[in-house]
Amino acid sequence: MRISDVLRDKGGRVVTVAPDLPVQDLLTELAEQRIGAAVVSGDGTAVDGIVSERDIVRALAVRGAAVLAEPVSAIATTRVFTIGADADIAEVERLMTEHRFRHVPVVTDGRLTGIVSIGDVVKKRITELEVEANALTGYITGERA
Ligand code: AMP
After folding, report:
1. Pick from 26, 65, 79, 143: most CB atoms within 10 A?
2. Domains of the chain, each with CATH number or no CATH
């Protein structure tokens, strides 16, 4: 199963934020969109960074509430691991496990075309297991699922 299969189900919409957006506004964006991370992008298509709830928590713990007035670029991760749409879903699982993050932007020809979260991966795997279990049950009982 490929990343493009995941994007076919969930769509390619990605929430991006400008590097100079205040952290306070980032909080609003994450809350309103019900997401845990946003891609930092100056033009909406290039991946300049990624910022997640964890970056906010860490910065708050170290610098206190003053961080809310700082730009997103002050707390974002700039070395971003991305994945291509043709990659196998196992590759994104490996990246998430190895580097302990839960979001991977999808980049096609240098442009941001989607994002895969650990929730998307788990959902896809559960569907896959259900289909497999139904097929096996059908095979054993002689009934078609
Ligand atoms: P997350 O688990 O996605 O909330 O992110 C945990 C930490 O990893 C945060 O510091 C994020 O900025 C960072 N992070 C999240 N996704 C990526 C990624 N694809 N590449 C590099 N760092 C990331």
Report:
1. 26
2. 3-141 (3.10.580.10)
pTM: 0.91
CA of 84 to the centre of ligand 1 (A): 17
What does the pLDDT look like over 115-139, one tens digit per residue? 999 999 999 989 889 999 999 998 9
The minimum-distance atom of ligand 1 relative to the CA of 58 is 10
- Count of beta carbons in the 10 Å neighbourhood of residue 45: 15
Q: Which two tokens stand for residue 71?
A: 């730009």
* Closest approach atom of ligand 1 to CA 51: 12
Contact 73, 49 (CB under 8 A): yes
> How many alpha carbons lie under 13 Å from residue 116 in its C-beta half-sphere?
30
Task: Report the separation in Å between the CA atom of 118 and the middle of ligand 1, taken as the mean of its atom positions.
Answer: 11
Tokens 């788990």 sit on residue? 122
Of 79, 59, 77, 80, nearest to 69 by C-alpha is 59
pLDDT in tens, 68-114: 999 999 999 999 999 999 999 999 999 999 999 999 999 999 999 99
